[in-house]
TrEMBL record:
Alphabetically ordered keywords of this record: Membrane, Transmembrane, Transmembrane helix
Record keyword Acetylation present: no
InterPro entries: OFeT_1
TM region(s), chain numbering: 6-26, 38-59, 65-82, 103-124, 130-151, 163-183, 189-206
Signal peptide per UniProt: none
Pfam families reported in the protein's UniProt record: OFeT_1 (PF16955)
Official protein name in the record: Uncharacterized protein
């Protein structure tokens, strides 16, 4: 086993998937049952299964098209999250079934996005040590699931409207970063700047 590849895969997978786990735990506390977990797992598998089955060929896909489609999806769900948060703060209510479908779609999308972030690194690691990268990712997944279960009660105390507000800013930020990358090279450090800008913009929209 290549220890360096293993540790890199373990680290990046834990970092990205833990965010998906935290979001899932919040929704799990609201919608009883296993639906949020199933949607989260589906989102992660949608990305990671192709990564480890045809990962070495993914690099041949035109990255600009992948980023463009991903950016549009992120903007769409960022908008849906912001709209849902605004309804709550304005005291507007929707049907429970419709709201649940929207929230579960968000869980799926956030999980897929976080898995995609990890996959960008894993694709570079796979050619140098497939088994090491796979093992690191599997162990990271197990650790994230265990931590999510252990900390579920604490995480689930986060208020959902506030989580939607923050997540919408995150999705808008990622969408903007990936859209800009199509035009010109840009450092990932700009993600933090975009995030705070969207936090401010979204806050203003919630107050209108």
């Amino acid at each position: 086993m290549n220890v360096g590849i293993f540790l890199a895969a373990l680290g990046v997978s834990m970092l990205e998937l833990s965010e998906a786990g935290a979001v899932t735990a919040v929704y799990q506390g609201i919608y009883k049952g296993i639906k949020p977990t199933l949607y989260a797992v589906a989102g992660v598998l949608l990305v990671l299964v192709p990564t480890f089955t045809v990962g070495r060929y993914i690099v041949y896909l035109p990255l600009d098209y992948v980023l463009a489609v991903s950016a549009v999806i992120l903007f769409y769900f960022g908008y849906r999250l912001l709209r849902s948060a605004r309804r709550y703060f304005k005291g507007i209510r929707r049907g429970n079934v419709e709201e649940e479908k929207s929230d579960l779609a968000v869980v799926f999308t956030v999980s897929a996005v976080e898995a995609f972030e990890a996959a960008l690194v894993l694709i570079a690691l796979i050619p140098k040590g497939y088994f090491s990268a796979l093992t690191g990712t599997l162990i990271a997944s197990i650790v994230v699931v265990a931590l999510t279960i252990a900390l579920k009660d604490q995480i689930s105390r986060i208020r959902l409207p506030h989580l939607k507000y923050v997540l919408s800013a995150l999705l808008f930020s990622l969408g903007t970063l990936w859209a800009v990358e199509i035009i010109m090279p840009i450092s990932d450090l700009f993600l933090l700047a975009f995030f705070f800008i969207y936090l401010a913009v979204n806050y203003g929209l919630l107050r209108i």
